[in-house]
Amino acid sequence: MTFSPRLRLLLALGLLSWAGAASPRAEEGFWLFSEAPIDKIADKYGIRLTSDWLDHLEQSTVRFNTKRFDVYIGGSGAFVSADGLIVTNRHVIPRQLLAAISRPDADLARDGFVAMSEREELELPGLSLDAIVASADVTAQVAAHVTAAGLGAENESSRREAIGEIERNASRAPGLVAEVVTLYSGARDILYVYRRYSDIRLVFAPEAEAARRLGDHPAPVFDVALVRAYESGVPARSPRFLRPSMRPLAEGEPIFISGVPTKSSRRLFVAELEAQRDIELPRWVRAYAEFHHRLAAFAAGSAEKARAAALLLGTIGFSRQIIEDRLASLQDGHFLAFRRQKESAILTALGERRDEQSIELIRSVGANVAGHVENKFRGELLAFGGPPPWRGQVVTLPYGVELAGPLYSFGNVLLKLRRERELPEKDRSDGYRVDERAELEKWLLGAQIIDPDIEALRLMSFFESLVETFGANHPVVQITLADASPAQRAENLVRGTRLADPAFRRALYESDREHFDAARDPLLDMLRSVERENSRIADAWRESERLLDEEGARARRVAASVREENSYPDGTRSARFGFGEVQSWVRQGSKIAAVTPLAAYYDSDGSDPTDFRRAPPPRWALAADKIDRKVPLDFVSTADVVGGNSGSPTVDAEGRLIGVVFGPGAIEGAIAADIAYQAGKPRRTAHVTAAAIIEALAHVYDASRLVDEMQRGDH
């Protein structure tokens, strides 16, 4: 008997385990490849996937190791040639990496890049990729270690020791890294063995305008990029890769995806969802709606004011849409009724076991969650969590820093820098370490256009949210407002501060502790005076976060023990399989076709701002006579994806690449994808087609060598 390389490695590690196939509900789920819903797919589409087919797709997939805010967000991709060529989304490659390899005469983040030869491919420093080699269920090995140590199953120290030993044993071969992933809050442990590629080079990225997403489908988007993995200075050999398909896509056609969903929250209890619905989200909705209305009224005052407010109006409007849409999803009665039914079944099963302790554990989450969410909202409002302000809004929910504005942020960052500089380098926060200062300095010390009228509006809205959240008598409110109204205090601080002056900020940035503390400025002084109260609020927020995570994890572990066998685990940055079909949808009574052709780039001159289409980017305009406008550009499907699936390869039943996922959702309701496949709204996932990639490389970017490589499978 002969074994595949995958199977030989598992046998050598002594970690092979068998798991029965599970079946999903409709197209929902990000499934372990070892538990792909083969029977369900066969029943629905008449296609029976084989183990070899699944192995090929899984081992063609890569994950990107990129961080934001000390958290892996990464993304997905796939080998598309035997010489290490990888396709992903342009937005998966961090913009700071594109900026780092740009030159004064070549802004790659704005203008894009095409390597016309292998010698021109540009190294992306700090970026690495992992390609899966093998996986195995090691739940029993971890449990046996814990039992042998004579410690309780809840002892995390013993679990970590067992996991560390398994990872060390599995990663002894050169170039391999091993990672044990815990599923269902600790109910299962899966070992993944990866080959890590640390020499990654940029091959192709379109200009920002072509990749930018102006609206929901069918707005045209070309969000793709090509990179290459190198080993020992030469292109890496990738025996598993996907060949592109150029054929048209049909309505109802089954599609399959592979990717690395970073994180989802499909196991939240009803009480946790209700706390978001009743406490957290309505406050954000009110705060952003009030500011949005005020800003719109300001912009209506004159053409000059409209120009000054245009960009911020768009940003705040987008944030507002996200929050309101998430709230609407959680207010859908059918969705929550379904979740209550599932939760009731879990409690009934525990009752039949006479497991009152576990029942009480689940109920305690509901009893405590409101207080935790209250603390969470306060922490988010005061910007104790989330991204550094210079990295932009790339989080699911906005933070108060976006309301308060840059002047407030400048002061807060300067105060935090003072504290961070007294810490060892390894203990400093993300973005504040010495080797990360370039991005911080560009934001903090660079010249920015700051309109004092808009800043006063922002700060007033922020102060009003403080009053609503904490109450007028709370110390943080009294210190902040100093007996003035929110409007008066905001006006006085904005007109009096010097933080709008880059030279003043630089002087504070470069000063020592003594001179910094002696510097006087009304906004900075206000922030200094409230530091102690903010510290108390931050401590309460962190403690609530810790307890909510710990209590929730224990309760979800109990719930997992009685769940139906065909359930799938939440996203964990490990390789997952999904499926769906190409499908149109209906918006406001009108049918929206599932496929957008390349013609969408050319059907509008961009003069109508309400038109979802756009004038073609310059390079595309020059290729207008060469491009085949009938070639499909984007399409939407019913596949289930969340954050981290960006760049996920999409294949047909023959295993040929037909697209690349570029968004967790293409229509309203997508923002709630982390908590449910369909939270009361229709659901679509957006993909760029492989046919469009080939057509654009050939006729827009003159990259025939890349077209040949993808179609042949090698250089």
Q: For the terminal residues, how far apart are their CA atoms?
A: 35 Å
Strand-residue proportion: 15-25%
Q: Helix count? A: 25
Helix share, percent: 40-55%
Q: Radius of gyration, rounded?
A: 26 Å
| Largest sheet properties | 11 strands, antiparallel
Tell me how many strands there are. Answer: 22
- Mean pLDDT value: 85
Structural class: alpha+beta
**Per the principal axes of the C-alpha atoms, what is the gross shape?**
globular
Low-confidence stretches: 1-25, 393-398, 605-613
In words, what does this structure look like?
This protein is globular. It is built from 25 helices and 22 strands. The strands form four sheets. Strands 1, 4, 5, 6, 7, 8, 9, 10, 11, 12 and 13 form an eleven-stranded antiparallel beta sheet that branches. Strands 15-14-20-21-22-19-18 form a seven-stranded antiparallel beta sheet. Among the domains are: 5-14 and 55-242, Trypsin-like serine proteases (Thrombin, subunit H); 270-540, no CATH class. Helix content is 44%, strand content 15%. The protein is an alpha+beta fold and 715 residues long.
Strand and helix layout:
Elements: H1 5-13, H2 38-45, H3 51-60, E1 61-65, E2 67-68, E3 71-72, E4 75-79, E5 85-88, H4 95-100, H5 108-111, E6 113-114, E7 122-123, E8 128-137, H6 139-148, H7 156-170, E9 176-183, E10 188-197, E11 199-205, H8 208-211, E12 225-231, E13 234-235, E14 254-259, H9 270-299, H10 303-330, H11 333-352, H12 356-381, H13 400-404, H14 406-420, H15 437-445, H16 452-470, H17 475-481, H18 486-496, H19 502-510, H20 513-518, H21 522-529, H22 531-560, E15 576-581, E16 585-587, E17 590-592, E18 595-597, H23 618-622, E19 632-637, E20 649-651, E21 657-663, E22 685-689, H24 690-699, H25 704-712
Helix pairs in contact: 6-7, 9-10, 9-12, 9-16, 12-22, 14-21, 16-17, 16-18
